[in-house]
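hey m, so remember when u said the C-alpha cells were messed up on ur end? i reran from scratch. heres the input so u can diff it against urs
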Amino acid sequence: MLITATSAPGCAPNAIARQCGSTRIERSSQSAFPFVSQTNGKTSIQVIERMMDLVDALAASPEPVNLKRLAAETGLHTSTAHRILAMMVEHRVVDRVEPGLYRLGIRLLELGHIVKSRIDLRTEALPYMRGLHQELRETVNLSVRAGDEMIYVERTVSDRQAMRVAHLIGARAPLHVTAVGKIFLLEDGPELCKAYALRTRLDGLTRNTIRDLGTLSKELDRIRKTGFAFDHEEAETGVSCIGAGIRDDEGKLVAGLSVSAPANRLERAWGSKIREVADYISRAIGWAPPRA
C-alpha cells in the first residue's frame, strides 16, 4: 500500500501522522510485498534474497525458531530480519507462534498444493527424456506401475534402423521381467515381493527371465547397491534395458525411466547416467534428496 499526502498550507511534513491537510491512500497490486516495491531494482533483489534465506533457515528447523537465531543463521541484522519477517507474517508466508518465535506459514502449503496439482509427470519428464535420447541415441521409456505390471506411458524412439523394441505406449509387462519393475519390487520389500512371486509364479517371457525367488532376491540386492536395474533380454529376446526410479514430493516411487537397446549395443556404464536423469525428473516433480 503506497501512502501519499497533500498538505494544507503551513502543514508540517508529517501531515499524515497529524491528520493535517488531506491524505490520499493509494493501493497498488504490483507487489505482494509493499516494502519491496518502494526500493530500487538492486535493493529489491537483495530483499528477496534475504526473504529466501529466512525461509530456508525456517525450513531447516523442525521447531519454531527465534529471531536472534534466524538473524545469526542468515547473517542479517536483527532489526532487518524482524522487519522482513513482519511483512512475511502479514502475507502468511511465515507464522509468528509467539513474540520473537517463527515458523513457516500456511500460505506456503496452499501454494504447494497448487503447484502439485499442476504437475504432469509426462510433461515434466519429456524434456529430460529427449536430452537422454540425444545423448545415447537409444529408445527412452517412461513407465508407471499398475498392479503386477508396468505400463509404458511415454517414449522417445531410437532413430537407428536396427532398433526394435516391443514396448509401445500403453504396452504392459510383468514387474519381474523389466528393469523398472524390479525397482518397484525392491521398494515393496521382501514380504510383498514373495507374495508377488507366489501370485504370478514368475512366468517367463524368454529363456533369460528370472523364474525363482532366490535369484530375484539376489538381483534386488544388487539394485539396492547401485540405484539402477537391468533387464538382460528378460522381456524380449535381443533387447536389453537399464532403468531407474522416479519419486514424487513425498519420496514415493511413482514411475521409472529406462533405456532400451539391442543387447549387443547396451552399455552397462549408462546406468549411472540414467539414474542421474531419473533424479532430475524426480526433482522436477517435487522430490528432494535426503540430506547427507
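this time it looks ok to me. The longest helix spans residues 41-59. if urs says something different then somethings off w ur setup not the seq
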